[in-house]
Amino acid sequence: MSDYILDVQHIHKRFTSKNVCVKAVSDVSFKVKKGETIGIVGESGCGKTTLGRCIVRGIEASEGSVQYTAKDGTEYDFLKIDKKEMKKVRKEIQMIFQDPYSSLDPRMTVLDIIEEPLKANYPKMTKEERNKLSIDIAAKVGLNTSYLMRYPHAFSGGQRQRIGIARALVLEPQVIVCDEAVSALDVSIQAQVINLLVELRKDMNLTYIFISHDLSVVEHISNKVGVMYLGKMVEFAQTDELFQYPLHPYTEALLSAVPVADPTMQVERIPLQGEIPNPANPPSGCYFHERCRYCIDKCVTEEPRLEELPGGRSVACHRAKELKLRGFAPVKKEA
After folding, report:
1. Which end of the chain is more exposed for a tag (fewer CB within 10 A), N or C?
2. Is residue 49, in this structure, part of any structural domain at all?
3. In a domain, 45, yes or no
4. Are 11 and 61 in contact (CB under 8 A)?
């Protein structure tokens, strides 16, 4: 049996319209151990959400494989299994969506929303059994079970996200892809939902792929972090290593933008010049070279490959071994 519950290899996703081809995800690979949380970060439009949806087959990847180790130890290429096998495995890989408002059907009660996956996957289950499981999982995620016959509009954003979490958990999955699961919520509610996800991971032995643009959230919840830029993975490392010793200039710039709550501390920002390139017409060489302050001639002409380094981390940068980049280290202001 593999040491990894997910082995994502060479995922590509291309969207084609008339004569335009947009490479939303280009050759992304990483591995996930059971019980880990992998954070995926990057600017808006970098392909994070598309990658997550490809992994759960919310959309079909153009190329690549996702080797998944099921609860019974059987290994599947999740992207290539047929409908019959998908029926068995589908319930083990679930997704929590970004928008807690549009991801819930306004015409269904909360109990019906949580029950729906059970109806689809266990058609012989009685209504009483479905109700009991749904009520139990609703209580586990902190919902008031006396309100389950109400409709989503009667709930706040944080409560709606808990409904989405309950819907994902009711099938007792192994892997959950969290797509910006807290970005639409107020900061205080974000903290509650993040702490809930951490508790559920321990209690139910879950594995998360946590997609976010908020690095402070990712640092709190993730064991490892992957940084994406224009559809490519440019760095992948243990969370503490990546935050303290980034190897890619884009990671360094992202870390410099992390806000610090302490007014006595200051961070030297690294502003990125220019705009994100057009993914339908990406630049030659390294996609980041037009905005990189460490760019050399080789960066303009030769595309760097994601290279695995000692210690298990990976980076796609020609100068990774020679640059000494600055991590997330706020400096206390002088009085």
Report:
1. C
2. yes
3. yes
4. yes
In the DSSP assignment, the letter for residue 267 is -
- E strand segments, 70-211: 75-77, 93-96, 175-179, 207-211
Dump pLDDT digits (tens) for 136-194.
999 999 899 999 999 999 998 889 989 999 999 999 999 999 998 887 777 778 888 88
| Closest by Cα among 250, 270, 243 to 327 | 243
Q: How many CB atoms lie within 10 A of CB 334?
A: 6
CATH number of the domain residue 187 falls in: 3.40.50.300
Of the candidates 235, 280, 287, 241, the residue with the CA atom closest to the CA atom of residue 29 = 235
| Residue 137 and residue 284 in one domain | no
Task: Tell me the C-alpha distance between 169 and 190, whole Å.
Answer: 19
Q: How far is residue 293's CA from residue 38's CA, in Å, rounded to a whole number?
A: 28
Q: Is residue 227 part of a domain?
A: no
Match 């954003």 to its residue by tokens. 157
What spatial distance separates the first Cα and last Cα of the chain, rounded to whole Å?
A: 58
Structurally, how many domains does the chain consist of?
Answer: 2
Spatial separation of the C-alpha atoms in residues 29 and 11, rounded to whole Å: 7
**Position 310 in a domain:** yes
Please, are residues 165 and 194 in contact by the beta-carbon 8 Å criterion?
no
- Amino acid 157 reads G
Q: Distance between CA 251 and CA 257 in Å, rounded? A: 10
Statement to judge: residues 66 and 192 lie in one domain: yes
Based on the domain organization, do 169 and 273 belong to the same domain?
no
Residue range 43-62: mean pLDDT, rounded: 92
Q: Which amino acid is at 43?
A: E
For residues 236 and 226, the answer to whether their CB atoms sit within 8 Å is yes
Gyration radius of the chain over CA positions? 21
In the DSSP assignment, the letter for residue 294 is T
CA distance 318 to 302: 9
pTM listed for this prediction: 0.91
